[in-house]
């Protein structure tokens, strides 16, 4: 039977159904191809870009600042250290009321509410509230329980000795970079290298370390060790401050130098400042005047003119010069002395500090040799202390006769305090100039020495004979008849020179009525262990170095000799005591015989010599407890303190001879 259904032609709907299936298959195949192509593009061609975008969402590179290296004195006492403290920040977008939060935070942190509100309003997701906050401030902010608050650790510079050595050490800014002193000079060595590590960020945006804590040595700066001695620095600063305040002066400088090595044992400045709170001090009070500032030194430079003249054989120790009875006309100018003097030897000229006779010595030398002598002692060249802005000083060539005269007694030229101390160090070191230095060594955390300074001879300035001759002459300055009797010490021979210089007036282009008073001494004179310079700027009670600066020298020298365990001098040279009388204004002609007063001066200068290993107990009656302890430690004695206040009694008694290291009991009581 015939199948009519099979023989029928396909209906049009069936054709369109097949066509639609084919079209849909093609469409899906095309979409699959597009998706595959996009996947290839993302996985192959844009892989690195997408990986970076993904990491930006949850991975963070955390920058960890390096811990700044420490600064120590010569005995390892820390002068500057770094500690970790909290800094406070906030996400302003999480604060429900920015103005109210600003008021609460400003009250807790003692900040200006309007300024803080303006700062938080400008920020979107991050703003500092207070950097390097105190623990009490952090606790106060946490107690507010404000949303969006954060706390991060930052290194903060801390100066445990406060004002001690602050001008030398310097300060750092809020970002930890050096601003002054050695902090600035050794910025690269002290700062070290910052470290970075990877971490994840959680849903709340908190950073999570994945590598654990880093080795502290990897992010620590180098340590700097100085030549300064903390005890001598303390004594120098205290004595200088007292001298400046007593003289009602504007500023002062003091330098203690070891002439055998060139090491600077103390560099003091006044006014002082606390580097822990630099914002409370002016920029001028932070300046290290002793190393950076130049000034006209005055008569302290006469010693070098005499030394250079002796070295050049322009004069001898017995040469006589007529001092014109106090006034000498040079061209249109008149050179004056403080007193009327007649004929004097070089020793007498130094003893009474005659400007007129010193000018005549300079004339005898000649201009070229005169300037050459100053340069040989290191003037007009930087000492190389590694301090930025160190002064150099100038020595103009004296074309005019009056310029030669004034430069012979330290006017019309400039120098720094360190230069003067180093030049006297050359006289004390038998004529050899040592390079002064302040930094002993710089060592990185691994123990590698990055820098090490050692005693360095620059040159021989004068012969040993001339150096000892001049030092011997300078001993007459501190005995009766000299200009600095207040610098004389009971147990040690002292050689020194006073200076009283007029200050230049840059506006009037001349000299003002302001003065710089100074004294520089070498002790002990027979075997020098320290050169001590004290400079007082613009004293008002008295303008002479022998009255203003010499007492401070004596106080520093007394502590230095005890601290350095220098045995007392046995005798003084007889010719010094004789010169103290024969070179006085009343004595004028050669051949004068020593009088009974000379023998008396000699007898007064001879002191008893304690046995080796023993020291005298200092007189501490009325001293504040802390100061008494410092003096005992400086004298190599062990203090035992009972009570508080000032010393009312001590055992053993003052002046007693005891062994080094012996215990001294101090009874303290408050004043009624």
Automatic annotation (TrEMBL):
Single GO cellular component term: plasma membrane
GO molecular function: carboxypeptidase activity; penicillin binding
Chief place where the protein resides: membrane
UniProt-annotated location(s): Membrane
UniProt-listed InterPro entries: Beta-lactam/transpept (IPR050515), Beta-lactam/transpept-like (IPR012338), PASTA_dom (IPR005543), PBP_dimer (IPR005311), PBP_dimer_sf (IPR036138), PCN-bd_Tpept (IPR001460)
PROSITE patterns per UniProt: PASTA
GO annotation terms (biological process): cell division; cell wall organization
Keyword vocabulary terms for this entry: Carboxypeptidase, Cell cycle, Cell division, Hydrolase, Membrane, Protease
Keyword hit for Glycoprotein: no
Gene3D superfamilies registered for this protein in UniProt: 3.30.10.20, 3.30.450.330, DD-peptidase/beta-lactamase superfamily, Penicillin-binding protein 2a (Domain 2)
Positions of the PASTA domain: 609-670
PANTHER family: PEPTIDOGLYCAN D,D-TRANSPEPTIDASE, PEPTIDOGLYCAN D,D-TRANSPEPTIDASE FTSI
Protein name, UniProt field: Cell division protein FtsI
Taxonomic path: Bacteria, Pseudomonadati, Myxococcota, Myxococcia, Myxococcales
